[in-house]
TrEMBL record:
This is Quinolinate synthase. One of its GO terms (molecular function) is transferase activity. Its cofactor is [4Fe-4S] cluster. The keyword Transport does not apply. Transmembrane segments: none annotated. Keywords: 4Fe-4S, Iron, Iron-sulfur, Metal-binding, Pyridine nucleotide biosynthesis, Transferase.
């Protein structure tokens, strides 16, 4: 029996579902029950009837699924697949900002640890950050931990005082304007679609800025033939499936998330077979971190 057959059989035996982010390898995306951006996957995780959730993604995604489902088993194919940005903010920084501003909302990108989420007022993803920040009653917003997504929100919601810390995604901030201009010269007719985790100069040069699913929708629905994509190339798999005639170009030679790459079919078989790499969180953490996640699900409706 090959890995795909084993996964199908084990999923039924264990009443498990597999959620996969667009950044994991195509062969993993293919065996998933649900593929999506972070927001879509959090929503699916909040609604499932399955006993086990196998999260083909990085740690913060598995943690959010567990917080939304404290009584289910959430299994991570690779226990070390973690998003470095999730750790780029401290509790001390949040407390200092709370002391400084009475009228402050701590808006926490879902790419953060469960420990940090406990101190947030609301979570957001790249697909709903603008909508949620606009809807908050507070004028002062401490947007953590992604300074680039925070900067994007700041410019879209000028009526708020959006402050950020120094966190960033190493994969997206790696993308340079020089390289973008080089690729654009090669394909002058191409449309540029980027993720808001990119630096401001990249976002400003783009025709479209959005979450991974928004980028996929944009490319599939836009008339052009050539597209320059400023995000991890895992999104190419879905675009190729939906619009095989589009030409997709990366900006950098390599646009992969090494942590998402750690997820393999073999590891999924292993966790399904042995119930290993279960996400275990302290009950107190989970209760406190649930409120900002629930608030996101409500406000994003
Ligand atoms: P999305 O919410 O757009 O899927 O992004 C997740 C992510 O980690 C981007 O680097
Ligand atoms: Fe984290 Fe960046 Fe990887 Fe997204 S692409 S999971 S933000 S390291």
């Amino acid at each position: 029996m090959d890995n795909i057959e084993k996964i199908k059989k084990l999923k039924e035996e264990k009443n498990a579902i597999i959620l996969a982010h667009y950044y994991v390898d195509e062969e993993v995306q293919k065996i998933a029950d649900y593929i999506g951006d972070s927001f879509y996957l959090a929503k699916v995780a909040s609604q499932t009837e399955a006993d086990r959730i196998v999260f083909a993604g990085v740690e913060f995604m598995g943690e959010s699924a567990k917080i939304l489902n404290p009584n289910k088993k959430v299994l991570m194919p690779d226990a070390f697949a973690d998003c470095p940005m999730a750790h780029m903010i401290t509790i001390k920084e949040i407390k200092e900002m709370r002391e400084k501003y009475d009228d402050l909302a701590v808006v926490c990108y879902i790419n953060s640890t469960a420990e940090i989420k406990q101190y947030a007022d609301v979570c957001v993803t790249s697909s709903n950050a603008i909508k949620i920040v606009k809807a908050l009653p507070q004028k002062n917003i401490f947007f953590i931990p992604d300074q680039n997504l925070g900067d994007f929100v700041r410019r879209q919601v000028p009526e708020k005082n959006v402050m950020t810390n120094y966190g960033h995604c190493p994969r997206h901030t790696n993308i340079t304007l020089d390289k973008l201009n080089e690729v654009k010269q090669k394909y002058p007719e191409a449309k540029i679609a980027v993720h808001p985790e990119c630096k401001r100069e990249i976002v400003e040069a783009a025709d479209f800025v959005g979450s991974t699913s928004a980028i996929i929708d944009y490319v599939v629905q836009t008339e052009a033939k050539d597209f320059i994509i400023g995000t991890v190339d895992g999104v190419f798999a879905k675009i190729k499936e939906l619009a095989p005639n589009k030409n997709l170009h990366t900006i950098m030679d390599v646009q992969v998330c090494p942590n998402m790459k750690k997820v393999t079919l073999e590891k999924i078989v292993d966790v399904l077979e042995n119930d290993t790499n279960e996400v275990i969180l302290n009950d107190d953490f989970m209760q406190k971190a649930l409120s900002p996640l629930k608030k996101m699900l409500e406000l994003a409706k």
